[in-house]
Amino acid sequence: MASYYYLIASLPELGTTGDMPITYDEFLSCCQSNVSEQDYEILKNLTLSSKKGPLVEDWAKFYQMLTRELGYQRSLNLGRSYSSSYDKDAFISQAVASALSAKNPLEAERGLLEYEFQALDSMVGLHMFDDYVLFGYAIKLKLLERLSCFEKEKGKAEFQSLFDGIQQQVYSL
């Protein structure tokens, strides 16, 4: 397990609100000369669904359970059956139910982001300045990148477009 004292100490703190203080590409630039080639390659190819790397295996198990629970609860809300069987986790089920009860999709995403950050913090545990912390940080950045794709104005415009289309269909009946 490698130590990354200077690198981790130099990274800006990540939170679930506000703008991203650093992009993933900027993060990779910081890592390039400070981590092993193997870790750098894993970081460079990291996705939220990756399964290789320190901490990443634990994250993958959690993320798979979370996405299955999301699929299950969304299917139930739409009155559809859910064909996959999976191990349920009461905490994940509660977090997903809470997110899906949000007023809008962006609020739901923010609720899930909070839960995912808490889960990552728990997985990192008492690790300090090592690859667990570094990969936890990288996953958090990937989560923030995903959230940054949700733009309120674009979402409103898309909703209005869909709503107008439905209204036209209703009026034509």
Can you offer a commentary on this structure?
- This protein has 173 residues and is an all-alpha fold.
- It has one domain (20-172).
- The protein contains 8 helices and no strands.
- The longest helix is centred in the middle third of the chain and has 22 residues, at 56-77.
- The radius of gyration is 19 Å and the shape is globular.
Mind describing the biggest β-sheet?
none
Helix content: 55-70%
Structural class: mainly alpha
Radius of gyration: 19 Å
- Provide a count of the helices: 8
- Could you tell me how far the N terminus lies from the C terminus, measured between alpha carbons in angstroms? 66 Å
> What general form does the structure show?
globular
Low-pLDDT stretches are none
Mean pLDDT: 89
**Proportion of β residues?**
under 5%
Per DSSP E runs of 2 or more residues, the count of β-strands stands at 0
Would you list the SSEs in sequence order as H and E?
HHHHHHHH
State the domain count: 1
Care to give the gist of this entry?
It contains 8 helices and no strands.
Key structural traits:
single chain, 173 residues, mainly alpha
Which secondary structure elements does this structure contain, and how are they paired or packed?
Blueprint: H1 5-10, H2 24-32, H3 37-44, H4 56-77, H5 90-100, H6 105-124, H7 131-148, H8 152-172
Helix pairs in contact: 4-5, 4-6, 5-6, 6-7
